[in-house]
Specification:
The protein is mostly beta strands. It is built from seven helices and 62 strands. It has eight domains: 17-202, von Willebrand factor, type A domain (Rossmann fold, 3-Layer(aba) Sandwich); 212-292, Immunoglobulin-like (Sandwich); 301-385, Immunoglobulin-like, CATH 2.60.40; 397-480, Sandwich (Immunoglobulin-like); 485-569, Macroglobulin (MG2) domain (Immunoglobulin-like, Sandwich); 574-658, Macroglobulin (MG2) domain (Immunoglobulin-like); 663-744, Sandwich (Immunoglobulin-like), CATH 2.60.40; 749-830, Immunoglobulin-like, CATH 2.60.40. Pfam families: VWA.
Length: 831
């Protein structure tokens, strides 16, 4: 085929555009350890925030560049349920939204665990399966803490063509070694090193912009331009180098060309030095900032209680005297000597006064609360500070027996701060501090705390853990193995019920199951719980012969505590049934087999594939069992099949389904609305019925129906409208036989005297359709047809007496059909 040149060119252009797409996902560690300090005294999280916001500012303004952000550890405390799945793509890889990226990074608060492998696996799912360039840059201060498989994640990255760059923040040697062979790795110990590593990581796909850009600053006093006498100096957060700005005029305007990045501004005024932090200078947008330098008429009053907070506790905050400001207000909790935009926790607040609550981190260094204003341009100003304090450590103790039976409840006597996320855990001796096993929270409880141990013998420790994973108290103890035994027969037939007796600790979740002899630990099939010290239960033997084991296992990963061998032997399967059956009739079937749970008999066409089933009955219904034959004549098979073996056919026998005979006797033409007597010779099986429907009605459609299983005659109330109809013999929606029926226009007569005495008796005679619901009514002359004063049902008697009204006047006799139609009207007078 010869395509036009322009078509080929367009195709090449589309391919080129698609392949030019670049997708970069930044993954930021927000685990609790990010509050630890770097060698220069700054917290790791603050360094990461400053560097990342500046890094985003330097990215090129490329329409083909798509940058997303994933956080882990930002929502859930390290030991809380779900901590190892706390990983979220907070910003998708859709274009480059600098403002959203920078704002999200600034507001990140470290809290939880370090699920690196899980985050990488989820990140791989975030990328489309296309030819775009794909890069993940992971910034972390620790190693995997959730036992994830980093190598498996790396294999998935390689398979999907995703490049991985890992940048460590002040990692120790052990943590650095954990990333051997996982992408490319670089450790950093300062803000400058981190910025350099980020630039290197994206150099091949999105080289950062290396240029200076103009920064404009407007100083104001009470919202009006400041008239002079001030100086402004910018300090790059990476190196702290001062960059004095140039005065533009006497209206408080300053200007300076600086490299893109994150800065702090110091404004020297007549009343002192004002500091504005968190200034991000972007490569491709105007960088204008406005600083209010007027003397604050009232500092925000910020207090807290209790006055000496303990680590991990929650304090109450009160604030008042908040001035009228433009921007967002927060209360920051920060180390006393950290920059104004630094914090270890924060909460948003509103109004001139109010209250708030905040959790105190487990950091034993001087801290303070700050009332902070974040202006629309991103600059930060502190409007008030609390008194300084140092979080206090609260002592904890734990006490347990020296020895217990593995799997029993461990009764722990404890004292401690009982903060909201504090917990007590049981771990094997030698477990690294911060690790945890089975645990229970102490907040809202009283001593002692009971913890269900795993059924594993050995030396263990019980530890009182803070919410941030510090060990506040510990005690060693020993767990000895419990005694387990089970008793079961050495042999059983397939599908047979097996009685099993057991003795054991009877711990919740213990169970007994039967599996193939070489099945891995944790495998189970049919089972019952063994949550009492001894007892007897029933298992269903497998439906496949072979060597098996009956196992006593725990819910701790299915650990097998004891097992006995059992041989499952096969059985003969057979079916006995008549050679033929009339369509729709039931057939009685004798069977031999395992009678296992899920065994059943079915009747299907002879050429149906094995495993197919139609009408069926479970063997547990008895022996023999009955099946209903299909309505369609032909060659069929009765099959013994088993759900437990994937509907495998274990026995089969042929059967021929012969056609049924149908014979109906009824008048071929009657008046519409007549009660029609239908005599029939037909199978009359359960569920078969007769209907009368207009000719041409789709098979399966009907309204009234009449079952045929109770005799050889059915009385049918025919429809009230004349026309051509069919009498149909049916089962479900299938028409088995049909015969035509004509319904003629209904007619009626009434013969009665012209008058009679009031309250007297009048004899009348009638003819008509004689439907059981037809009636003759007495009405005043002129009454609507839906109204009358007396009525008489119609039976077999064609002559009967009626009682006349007491009130003299003109009346009518009307023949009223079941459908409410008046077939004839005869007037008479009551005297």
């Amino acid at each position: 085929m010869n395509l036009p040149r322009i078509t080929l060119l367009l195709g090449f252009m589309l391919v080129a555009q698609a392949s030019a797409q670049t997708r970069v996902q930044l993954i930021l560690d927000a685990s609790g350890s990010m509050y630890n300090k770097m060698p220069d005294g700054q917290t790791r999280i603050q360094v990461a925030k400053d560097v990342l916001t500046g890094f985003v500012a330097s990215l090129p303004d490329d329409p083909q560049l798509n940058v997303g952000l994933r956080l882990y550890g930002a929502k859930t405390m390290a030991v809380a349920q779900g901590a190892c799945q706390d990983s979220e793509l907070v910003l998708p890889m859709q274009g480059l939204n600098r403002a959203a990226l920078q704002d999200t990074v600034r507001k990140t608060t470290p809290k939880g665990a370090t699920p690196i492998a899980y985050s990488l696996l989820k990140a791989a799912e975030d990328f489309p399966n296309d030819a775009s360039k794909k890069l993940v840059v992971l910034v972390t201060d620790g190693q995997e803490s959730c036992r994830g498989d980093l190598k498996a994640a790396m294999e998935l990255f390689n398979k999907r063509g995703i490049e991985l760059k890992i940048i460590g923040i002040d990692l120790d040697d052990r943590a650095q070694r954990s990333f051997n062979g996982i992408g490319s790795f670089q450790n950093t110990t300062s803000a400058n090193q981190l910025a350099s590593a980020l630039g290197t990581a994206v150099q091949q796909v999105a080289p950062p912009v290396q240029k200076t850009v103009p920064v404009n600053v407007q100083l104001t006093i009470d919202g009006k331009p400041s008239t002079g006498g001030n100086t402004v100096t910018l300090l790059n957060v990476l190196d702290g180098k001062p960059l004095p700005m140039t005065v533009q005029n006497s209206e408080g305007q300053f200007r300076l060309d600086v490299p893109v990045g994150t800065y702090t501004a110091q404004v020297n005024t007549s009343t002192g030095v004002r500091t504005f932090t968190g200034l991000t200078v972007n490569a491709t947008s105007e960088n204008r900032f406005a600083f209010e330098v007027g003397e604050l008429r009232a500092q925000v009053d910020l207090t807290f209680s209790p006055q000496t907070p303990s680590m991990g506790s929650t304090v109450k905050l009160q604030f008042k005297n908040v001035p009228e400001v433009t921007g967002d207000t927060h209360i920051f909790l920060a180390e006393k000597d950290d920059a104004d935009n630094s914090y270890v926790n924060y909460t948003a607040v509103q109004g001139k006064e109010g209250e708030a609550e905040m959790r105190i981190p487990e950091i034993a260094r001087p801290m303070e609360f700050r009332f902070v204003l974040t202006r629309p341009d991103g600059s930060v100003q502190v409007l008030g500070r609390s008194a300084a304090f140092t979080p206090q450590e609260v002592a904890a103790t734990v006490q347990v027996p020296a020895e217990i039976t593995a799997g029993d409840l461990l009764r722990v006597l404890w004292t401690g701060p009982a903060n909201s996320d504090d917990y007590i855990t049981v771990v094997p001796e030698g477990t690294t501090d911060g690790g945890y096993g089975v645990y229970g929270y102490v907040s809202g409880t009283t001593s002692p705390l009971e913890i269900r141990t795993h059924p594993v013998a050995g030396n263990f420790e019980v530890r009182y853990m803070s919410g941030e994973g510090r060990v506040l108290a510990r005690q060693a103890f020993r767990m000895i193995k419990a005694q387990y035994s089970i008793s079961a027969p050495q042999k059983a037939n397939v599908g047979q019920e097996i009685k099993v007796s057991w003795k054991g600790p009877g711990q919740p979740g213990d169970y007994i199951t039967i599996v193939e002899k070489d099945a891995p630990e944790g495998t189970y099939t049919h089972y019952f719980y063994a949550d009492t010290p001894e007892g007897t239960g029933t298992l269903n033997a497998p439906q496949k012969a072979g060597a098996y084991q009956v196992r006593y296992a725990t819910d701790n990963g299915g650990t097998v505590m004891t097992a006995v061998d059992i041989t499952i032997e096969g059985l003969d399967y057979s079916l006995t049934a008549p050679a033929s059956v009339v369509a729709g009739n039931t057939v009685s079937i004798q069977w031999k087999g395992a009678d296992a749970q899920g065994d059943y008999l079915t009747l299907v066409p002879k050429d149906a594939e094995d495993g197919v089933y139609a009408e069926y009955v479970y063997t547990r219904a008895g022996n023999p069992v009955e099946l209903r034959a299909p309505q369609t004549p032909g060659d069929y098979e009765i099959r013994y099949q088993s759900e437990g073996l994937g509907n495998a056919v274990l026995a089969r026998t042929p059967i021929k389904v012969t056609g049924a005979q149908y014979n109906f006797r009824f008048p071929r033409s009657v008046m519409a609305g007549t009660a029609l007597n239908v005599d029939y010779d037909a199978p009359g099986n359960a569920g078969e019925f007769l209907v009368v429907v207009p000719k041409g009605t789709p098979d399966g459609d009907y309204q009234s129906f009449y079952y045929t299983s109770d005799g050889t005659r059915v009385v049918i109330n025919t429809p009230s409208l004349p026309g051509e109809y069919e009498v149909r013999y049916m089962f479900n929606s299938q028409v088995l036989h049909r015969q035509p029926l004509t319904l003629t226009q209904p007619k009626a007569t009434i013969q009665a005297p012209a008058s009679g005495p009031s309250g007297g008796i009048m004899q009348i005679s009638w003819t008509g359709p004689a439907n059981p619901e037809d009636r003759i009514v007495i009405a005043r002359k002129g009454m609507p047809i839906t109204e009358w004063i007396d009525e008489h049902g119609l039976g077999e008697d064609r002559t009967f007496d009626i009682n006349l009204p007491e009130e003299p006047g003109d009346y009518e006799l009307r023949y009223l059909t079941q459908a409410g139609t008046v077939l004839v009207t005869v007037p008479f007078k009551v005297q």
